[in-house]
What we know:
The chain is an alpha+beta fold. The protein folds into three domains: about 80 residues, Uridine Diphospho-n-acetylenolpyruvylglucosamine Reductase, domain 2 (2-Layer Sandwich), CATH 3.30.43; about 120 residues, Uridine Diphospho-n-acetylenolpyruvylglucosamine Reductase, domain 3 (2-Layer Sandwich); about 80 residues, Uridine Diphospho-n-acetylenolpyruvylglucosamine Reductase, domain 1 (Alpha-Beta Complex). The protein is built from seven helices and 18 strands. The strands form six sheets. Strands 6-7-13-11-12 form a five-stranded antiparallel β-sheet. Strand 11 and strand 12 form a beta hairpin. The protein is globular and about 55 Å long. The two termini are about 20 Å apart.
Amino acid sequence: xxxxxxxxxxxxxxxxxxxxxxxxxxxxxxxxxxxxxxxxxxxxxxxxxxxxxxxxxxxxxxxxxxxxxxxxxxxxxxxxxxxxxxxxxxxxxxxxxxxxxxxxxxxxxxxxxxxxxxxxxxxxxxxxxxxxxxxxxxxxxxxxxxxxxxxxxxxxxxxxxxxxxxxxxxxxxxxxxxxxxxxxxxxxxxxxxxxxxxxxxxxxxxxxxxxxxxxxxxxxxxxxxxxxxxxxxxxxxxxxxxxxxxxxxxxxxxxxxxxxxxxxxxxxxxxxxxxxxxxxxxxxxxxxxxxxxxxxxxxxxxx
Length: 303
């Protein structure tokens, strides 16, 4: 088991960002649940992140990257090891030939909005999806006929072995994955957009924003879509037809408005959400024979 005190002291001598111990992850996740992280590190730049990863690896301390805290369920016992908060790494650089370089901590909404303002299309139908660029790469975020991987040229990532760059051909983009392994942290992405009409793109962003407000505003802390869509099916419809709309365990409830969302009504624990996920999966499987797969990442230990 990693010596957290020793790691903390080592980091204090060279790490430029904030270092916290036993930081409650309820403060950093969109579900507002989860126990504490042994270490919570906030690197100020790419070099700071690389230093932290190298030191954590040397001390055999597990680490987990954190963006906006959406699409994530942290268990009530918290995370043994280190959380790396990447929200400071949000550079955005407009290049020639419709290309953009974006840091992993940049909000997806900011990337797509700036692209549209410059007449760059290709991700406009993803507008409104919460989260950061790093998460969008890892999960190959998608909506309607667009996926994040469609515009990726190359990805810079780091692990204990240092910094590496993969071109699109070296990535494995498919439904909700890009083929990265545990310990590999996306740092920045090179994207190539299509030339588009600025006014037309901004109209699409406005329409997408209005649509998501109508259909996804579930009035409570949530992590977005809980389940992946099975081939040829909509997860929300399967959940609804299994009679799970409004189902509740503790303060965790399947949304009445969008049945692929689970809402924290105020005092939910991660254990409540996990139990409700299991209940929904069993109900759908019993009715249809389909076992839904969670889209959210589940990390940490039970209380």
